[in-house]
Amino acid sequence: MTDYDLFNIHDLDPIPDYFSFQDTIDSFQDLPKKRPIDQLDESSFLPGTLEYKKARKKRQNRESASRSRARKKIELTSLDTTLSQIAEINQKLTLENAALKAENGMLKKELEFYKGFVKNDEPKMKGNKASTGWLAVSVVLSMICMVLVTHEEGGQAVNMGGRSLKSMKQNKFLNNEESNYSMIMVVVLGLAAAACAWKYFHK
């Protein structure tokens, strides 16, 4: 190439495109990849060397971190299960609490009803007590009347069996007076008993 050709460079033929930028990138991608030295395990180094010890330590750290992540995952799974169980128990307790509150309200209403019922029946109960008292008095008076009548008849039988006819005639007047008194007492007590019984049945 002469000096004249240098001044007329635009008249020269273009240089052939033997390679391009994309070809350069593809060529770099086809190169074999090497693992970084930090990712190599101890089998890639000679035992006893510093690189071997570092690689072994890093492998142990990776295994420890992997175990730690596994433990954390198990713990998180256990916590999720526990939280689900607690939420279920809480829901059941909430429903039971609502049911107990409703039952407590019903029992309170029932208690108030029975309190009002007892309060309204107190006068009747007092009246029943009074009627029972009248009945008791009537029974007692009736028993006294029966005792008097029985005693009178027994006394007359004893007198008839143990005394002579003459003695009976002599004491006839006294016996008549005693009999009249006893009969009056029986009649009075009988009337009182009848009055008490009437009070009881008409209360």
TrEMBL record:
Gene Ontology MF: a single term: DNA-binding transcription factor activity
Transmembrane segments: 133-151, 181-201
Keywords, sorted A to Z: Coiled coil, Membrane, Transmembrane, Transmembrane helix
Keyword Membrane among UniProt keywords: yes
CDD domains, sorted: bZIP (cd14686)
Coiled-coil segments on the chain, per record: 83-110
Residue stretches making up the BZIP domain: 51-114
Domain of life: Eukaryota
Matching Pfam families: bZIP_1
Cross-referenced InterPro entries: bZIP, bZIP_sf
SUPFAM superfamilies on file: Leucine zipper domain
Gene3D superfamilies linked: 1.20.5.170
Protein name: BZIP domain-containing protein
Organism field: Blepharisma stoltei
